[in-house]
Structures are given as C-alpha cells and as structure tokens.
Amino acid sequence: MYLTLRDRPGGKSGSKSPSRAAPRIATTVVLLGIVSLLTDVSSEMVSAVLPLYLTAELGLGVLAYGFVDGLYQGVSALLRIGGGYVSDRSNRPKWVATTGYALSALSRVGMLVAHSLGPISAVVTADRLGKGLRTAPRDAIIADSSDPKALGRAFGVHRTLDTIGAAIGPLVAFSMLLLVPGDYNSVWIVSAGFAAVGVAVIVLFVPNHRAKTARTAQNVRQLLREVTGPRLRRPLVAAGLLALFTVGDGFLYLSLQERDHFAAKYFPLLYVGTNIAYLLLAIPFGRLADRIGRTRVFLGGHVALLLVYLFAAGPFTGLSATIVVLALIGTYYAATDGVLPALVTPLVDPQARGSGIAAAQTVVVLARFASSLAFGSLWLLLGSTHALYLVAGLLAVTLAVAVWLLRAVAAAPTTEAAA
Length: 419
What we know:
This protein has a single domain (about 25-210, about 220-419), classed as Up-down Bundle (Growth Hormone, Chain: A), CATH 1.20.1250.20. By secondary structure, it is mainly alpha-helical. The chain contains 17 helices and two strands. Helix 9 (about 230-245) packs parallel to helix 15 (about 355-380) and helix 11 (about 270-290) runs antiparallel to helix 12. About 75% of the residues lie in helices and about 0% in strands.
C-alpha cells in the first residue's frame, strides 16, 4: 500500500516519481478506512448476532427477520440522496458524514432497551439512516482525494480497512457470547464503544476535503438532470436489477446452519469467513477493475453470487462446502462494493459527484430491501433450498440483461475526458 503526505494527487513532493509508478493512495483515504474499520467492528458485532437474537433469543420467526433485514438493507436509501446532495451543495462532506457516523453510534445504545420487533426495528432504522447519510459524502471524499486512474484501488484500500473491522466485529461478539452465553447487552455496550471511537477519529483527524474543481450550487432540478442523464442511466438500471436478486447474508447463513446443523454459537464465525475473503480480494479486485474495466469486474462479482446460491442450495455439505460459500460471498463483495462507486465516479460531473454515487447506492439498497422482504416469503412458501434455486435462475437471466445494459459504458465519454 502506498501512502502520500499529500491528499491530492499531483501535489509536489520531495522527489520525482518514475512515470510508471503506481499512483499513491491518499492519507485521507486511509484515515477514512480507519473510521470505517472502527464503525464496522461496531456494526458487525450487532449484525452477526442479530439473526440468532431475533429467532432464538426473542422467538421471532423467519418472516420477522426478513422484515428487519429488509430495513437493514433498505432504510439507508431514505437519506443517501439527501446526504449526497447536502454534501455537494455545502461542500462540507466531512461534517455530513460525521453526522451519519454519530447517528449510528447512538443507535447502538438503543439495543439495550429493544426487546421486541417494534423497538428493534426503530433502532435498526436509526442505524441505517446514519449509514445512508454518511456513505455518499465519504465516497465522494475518497474520489476527490484519488487519482482518477486508480479509483478502483483507492476504493479497494478503503474497503479492505473497512472489512478488517467487519471481520473483527463478529469475532468480538462470538468471544463475548462464548464466555458469557446469552449476554447480548454486553455485546451492545462494547459495540457502542467502538462506534464512539470511530466518530472521534473522523472529527479529530479527517480533513474536510473539498472537490478538486470549484463547485457551483445546484438546485434539485439540476441534480435530477445529472443523476438521470444518459451516462448514468444504464449503470443505475443494471445495478438495480442485479440487486433485486441479491439475497441478504443473514438468510444465506441461516440456510447453511439449517443444512449442516452446526451449533448456534458458531454462527458469528460465518461473517468472519466472508469478511476474510473480502479482505484478501478487495485491493486486487480494485486494481483489476482499473486495468481491465470496472464493468467486467462488477458483472463477474454477480457471477460469483450466482455460484453462492447454487452451492448453498445444492447437495454440498460439511465444512469444505461452507468455506466455499463464504469465499464466494466475499468474492462478490470485493468485486462490487468498491467497484460500483469507482464505476460511477467518472460518469458524473464533479459538482454532483456525491449525488451521483448516492443515486447508484440508493438504487441498490432499495432493490435489496425488496429482495429481503420477498425472499423471506419465498423461504416460508418453498423452503430455503427451492427459494435459492429460484433466485439463482432469475439472477442468471438478469445478468444477461445487465451485460447488454453495461456494454457501452466503457466506451462512453467520462467527465475526466471531457475536462
């Protein structure tokens, strides 16, 4: 990993770099990665035990979990566009992102008094609203801090640090429940502590990074014209269609547990396995996306997701089959999570960068919200195996449509080229 003392690429340094040297990753990107690491330790501590907490501890059914998982996936959409727009309009992305991180940190405390579906839904909603508010401004800062030719690698570095936290969180939760079985309140308290440290880091150390080019205030009509323009329309439609057939991790893990009957206390380790695969692949896939094309890597990630469904539903059992499924889920995230904003960034005017990234993320989370609700119903009607086979078939058809939608994106003029 290369770091630079200059946040903006192209700044003067003590010595000249060789012309073929890889663009350096800005310090701001690493600092935001540390913030995300701490925040993900907090959030994954909760999400890793939430399926069991709802179904085993509180006695709620799979459909109730599907509702909460839908909230977890989709509620952030309510503020993503707003967060991106306020960030673009005010040119203060750090403080918009900080507000989102603080809201999520406060929601952790709410888990201490949430013992039924209603209060838990409210806490999850607050957490996801915080995520929705912070994500686009944070990704806009990453894009503004990075060399346009290395956007995939920059987002890969950030997602790698983010995923280290996502791997640590379930381990912490698992260890606590192993030492004191059923002590979920301790999990919620420690989770809140990690989130508070993350807020402190962004407040104290992350600069309020501004766009490289001067921003002009845009009204809502101008914003809509930018994010629905011809450059961005096809990627948004493709990403939304693919997300409609993205089954939430919790459902996949519950399916594995139902199939292999492993002890509930090992459930959080499934999240660790996925995050280790993501951690190992995020930077290589980011570099690959910069080299061979971000649309190719993005689509390849969904091929990995299709394999996840087939392996999770198929006649494959035991530890080795579970490891394959977890590795494929991590591959899917490494090829899509950071690659999507890297794909979108060159297609949007820098003055609306936060809003453009937010538009893509909003389409995805809204589609995943619908997917979670639908899959919970399919599970009850068909069982987990047949439900996964059905979604796999639908995803295969959608992949063909997405290939057609995205085939012209690589050849489309970008904002950097226009400038």
